[in-house]
Amino acid sequence: AAGAAAAAGLWSEVNRCGQNGDFARALKSVNKILQINKDDVTALQCKVVCLIQNGNFKEALGVINTHTKVLTSDVIAFEKAYCEYRLNRIESALKTIQSASQQTDKLKELYGQVLYRLERYDDCLAAYRDLIRNSQDEYEEERKTNLSAVVAAQSTWEKVVPEDLGLREATYELCYNSACALIGQGKLNEAMKKLQKAEELCRQSLSEDSDVTEEDIEAELAIIHGQMAYIMQLQGRTEDALQLYNQIIKLKPTDVGLLAVIANNIITINKDQNVFDSKKKVKLTNAEGVEHKLSKKQLQAIEFNKALLAMYTNQADQCRKLSASLQSQSPEHLLPVLIQAAQLCREKQHAKAVGLLQDFADQHPANAAEIKLTMAQLKIAQGSVTKACMILRSIEELQHKPGMVSALVTMYSHEEDIDSAIEVFTQAIQWYQQYQARTNHGCCVFQPKSPVHLSLIREAANFKLKHGRKKEAISDLEELWKQNPKDVHTLAQLISAYSLVDPEKAKVLSKHLPSSDTMSLKVDVDALENSHGATYVRKKAGKLTGDNQQKEQGQGEVKKKKKKKKGKLPKNYDPKVTPDPERWLPMRERSYYRGRKKGKKKDQVGKGTQGSTTTGSSELDASRTASSPPTSPRPGSGAAVSATSNVIPPRHQKPAGAPATKKKQQQKKKKGAKGGW
Fold first, then answer.
1. In the predicted model, is pLDDT for residue 356 greater than 80?
2. With contact defined as beta carbons under 8 Å apart, do 226 and 269 qualify?
3. Which fold has domain 1-102?
4. Three-class SS of residue 440?
């Protein structure tokens, strides 16, 4: 009786704590109850719920597995499946849900989440549709959000065209999911508008709560801004995308999945540049729990980029390790093998790279075409064009395609192997003939050839004519003319080819050429002259026409002669004297030029060796004249000073003829002056 009374008090305590949300205190009371009765089913259930509310999922699952006899699957199926789901044991959670005898609404909700994590989107879509149809409560908006998320995942990862669910985009979550679906369809501009609307709705809804700060709003908007940056990256606006990505990283959001995706996208923008920044961003992709936040294709893309970054940073062993791991996970995927081949090429092991690709093509024939294209590219890089052509011709599903035919013909022409190029044309034309025969079921009635077939025949004929193979081109030209007898150009080519082989046949065919009257072109001259290309010609022709009109008008009129101005004659011109015929030549080039006349003083200066004197130097020596006084007075003789007071020293004497020269210069200046004071 005492134990029962104590248990009743503990149960009331558990009830009160549960209503208040104090599950830690409620757990203590439940443990006391279990001490009284360890197999109490209700107490065990309450203990599991308290542990789940406190986030102790592993301990809660341990309690369930320990008391399997008491806590059967019918009693606690939802709690067990939820603990497994939160511990990322998704397959186990699915088995637990499917083994439950009764599918409650809670189990159906969890079943939808489990299917989404397993990427079984078709089953998930059906589960949520059933939930929305058969339930009416306050969680209807959340179910619609989850339904739109499933549709967005189908559009993004499975490339399924989403159907219109008729959901009213009243919340920013619905707008965001709708934008993701549009991105999967490639409608980037519409998706950007949806994301902008989602941003506005998010700000409005969060700003109504007074407890939410601006930092909280920016953190909530981080995923929307991340999708905006992704759209910019797809549109080629890499600088804008990179700036927005870095802004999100600076906010340090708690969502490790978002950080991993943004870091991966930055690495793809950097490519083989800025590898140090890429190596820093790789650390964000290795955060704990990332593998549970992203889809398989997202994780695979991140691993591919890690391998490529290792190759760019010359980490060969790391690159091989990552690519081998990827190949073991997806044996039929092309990228791991291509990365390994690229790494071998960086190590100058081209032959080994080609062998690796050949082995993969033999093991996976479905992907052999793309692998062989890569092998051909490697052979071309090595200069082995002929071997590259052999590899390309071994791709049966592509050898008749116009692009492949054009590439092979170009490569063979580069190697001057005209016979092989013609053989490529012949095989492609035969393939289309056989294909047409199969589609017509052997019918002998004349059937027009396809445009691709005719195009190949024409290109083959032109190629043969270009390289002087007119005999071989005749059959192709006849086939083209048979398909279109009105084609004058083909007929002209055929006649030209026959003229060298069979002139008589050329004459017969020339009768089919249209007459000159029928070949007159109906051209609108006015429209042709007014066209953009004829502008310059029309202007030039207009000028010429105007000149001709002026000439015609001037035939009947007397042309007025313009008066010529008389040339100015020199002042000393004498009409009786014949002008000098050499007057137009420079003075130095005239026959009578004898050079300038030099003065006596100029003749005397500078002749002879340096320091020598001329015959007239004695005349300049003042010491030889009797009347010349000493140049400097002797010390102590005052008479000498008085005697020389009236004599001008040599440095103060002016040279003879100086005043006359000055007057001549003044007269010249007066003659040249044009104005006065």
1. yes
2. no
3. 1.25.40
4. coil
Question: Within the chain, which residue ranges are assigned CATH 1.25.40.10?
Answer: 1-102
Instruction: Give the pLDDT of residue 350.
Output: 87
Which CATH number is correct for 429-512, 1.25.40, 1.10.10, 1.10.150, 3.90.550?
1.25.40
- Measuring CA to CA, how many Å separate 326 from each of 299, 314, 405? 11, 19, 35
Q: H/E/C letters for each residue in 82-149?
A: HHHHHCCCHHHHHHHHHHCCCCCHHHHHHHHHHHHHCCCHHHHHHHHHHHHHHCCCCCHHHHHHHHHH
SS3 677: coil
For residues 321 and 652, give the distance between their C-alpha atoms in angstroms, rounded to a whole number: 107
Distance of CA 632 to the CA centre of its chain: 98
User: With 0-12 CB in 10 A as exposed, 13-18 as middle and 19+ as buried, what is 361?
Assistant: buried
pLDDT at res. 209: 84
Quote the longest CA-to-CA distance of the chain.
172
| Top-confidence residue, 242 or 272 | 242
Which contacts (CB < 8 Å, 24+ apart) does range 589-592 have? none
Residues 492, 498: Cα–Cα separation, whole Å: 10
Joined together, the tokens standing for residue 602 give 């100029």
